[in-house]
Design a protein that fits this description.
391 residues; alpha+beta; Butyryl-Coa Dehydrogenase, subunit A, domain 1; Butyryl-CoA Dehydrogenase, subunit A, domain 2; 3 domains; four-stranded mixed beta sheet; 11 helices; 10 strands; 48% helix; globular
């Protein structure tokens, strides 16, 4: 496997300073030692070992934005972007660490009580606690308002029943935020939904089979099963019956981070392809000297730059606290589709070698397919955009 991507003009971005560049170099050096040499084995094993999570925690790469009193560094969002990008350059199989950092634990930070934060943050930061969020159910897909997993309150406990599927970190996890229906008689399906933490070892909670995916093999994904799972009321996150609205508030960041991931994947595919065509000789000259190759590369580079510019603008707006749901929805569908467009073009320029497992482009070709499906399918994104445009 090639080394990680060289520095692009990262310091030219308004949200990245010199200290972020120093941090990026340190993180990259760590990943080149602790992740790259083992990544193919993790792909074969279909899981990233917990020992790597612990190493990430030991280095301060898990939830660095968390408050210092819980073990974090209160680092700004630029550090989260750097970590997201560098993990993506290793491979999409490290996506579980990214959702832990930038999707799941932010729910605890935003809606959790001080007691909940004291219980869970130190271990989430050290790598001793691996988080997951259980939204999707068989038959519901992206329609979160239709969840059937129910939580009935009995005294000081919730009794949870239901099944979740496609759960990232599902095998490794020991801490799951479960999207449940707590008021089946709510006047609207969007109401009556709550977020409840279920911890590993809870009676009635079990992990189902690990799912066999087309790509992203090291990214463990499974079913989760709740059969009269008994959970303390203290594990409720945020307000009871307001879970859907909590999800909607945080989905902006989740979908933005998907766009960050997939523009990084596109950049990585272009980089390894440019390196290949400069080295590969066909009919007595470098493949990069053929006009067809040059035009393909020029077209891809242009579209990727357009995408990167858009994503960077959205990062700046997100940091500023702006509501950019429409723009984030645009970026999520367009960038993930761009990565799917770039992948076969880059594979084609690798020729027969692109079809070989030992070439990184082959893995990326199958890995980027999922981007248009998760975090809300691209059809859902277009529906959000249309609605927000007044259609």
């Amino acid at each position: 496997m090639n080394g990680l991507m060289g520095d692009q003009k990262y310091t030219a971005k308004s949200y990245l300073k010199e200290e972020h560049l120093v941090f990026r170099k340190s993180l990259r050096k760590f990943l080149e030692k602790e992740a790259l040499p083992f990544y193919e084995q993790w792909e074969e094993n279909k899981i990233v070992p917990k020992s790597f999570w612990k190493k990430m925690g030991d280095m301060g790469y898990l939830c660095p934005w968390a408050d210092e009193k819980y073990g974090g560094f209160k680092a700004d969002f630029g550090y989260s972007i750097v970590i997201q990008e560098e993990l993506c350059k290793v491979g999409s199989g490290l996506g579980g660490l990214n959702i832990h950092n930038n999707v799941i634990m932010p729910y605890i930070e935003r809606y959790g009580t001080n007691e909940q934060k004291k219980r869970w943050f130190p271990r989430a930061i050290s790598g001793d606690l691996i988080s997951a969020i259980a939204m999707t159910e068989p038959g519901t897909g992206s329609d979160l308002a239709k969840v059937k997993t129910n939580a009935v309150r009995k005294g000081n406990h919730f009794i949870i029943n239901g099944e979740k599927t496609f759960i990232s970190n599902g095998i490794n996890t020991n801490f799951v935020i479960v999207v449940c229906r707590t008021n089946p008689n709510a006047e609207s399906p969007h109401k009556g939904i709550s977020l409840i933490v279920v911890e590993e070892g809870t009676p009635g909670f079990s992990k189902g089979k690990q799912l066999k995916k087309l790509g992203q093999h090291a990214y463990d994904t499974s079913e989760l099963i709740f059969e009269d799972a008994v959970v303390p009321v203290e594990n409720l996150i945020g307000e009871e019956n307001k879970g859907f609205y909590h999800l909607m508030e945080k989905l902006q960041q989740e979908r933005l981070m998907v766009a960050v991931s997939f523009i990084t994947f596109a950049e990585r595919m272009l980089e390894i392809t440019m390196n290949y065509v400069k080295e590969r000789t066909v009919f007595g000259q470098q493949l990069s000297k053929f006009q067809n190759t040059q035009f393909r590369i020029a077209e891809m580079a242009t579209e990727i730059q357009l995408g990167r510019t858009f994503v960077d603008q959205l990062i700046e707006k997100h940091i500023a606290g702006e509501n950019i749901v429409t723009e984030v929805s645009m970026s999520k569908w367009w960038i993930t589709n761009l990565a799917k467009k770039i992948a076969p073009l880059c594979l084609q320029l690798h020729g027969g070698y692109g079809f070989m497992e030992e070439y990184e482009i082959a893995r990326m070709y199958r890995d980027v397919v999922a981007g248009s499906i998760y975090a809300g399918s691209n059809e859902i994104m277009k529906g959000i955009i249309a609605k927000n445009l007044g259609l």
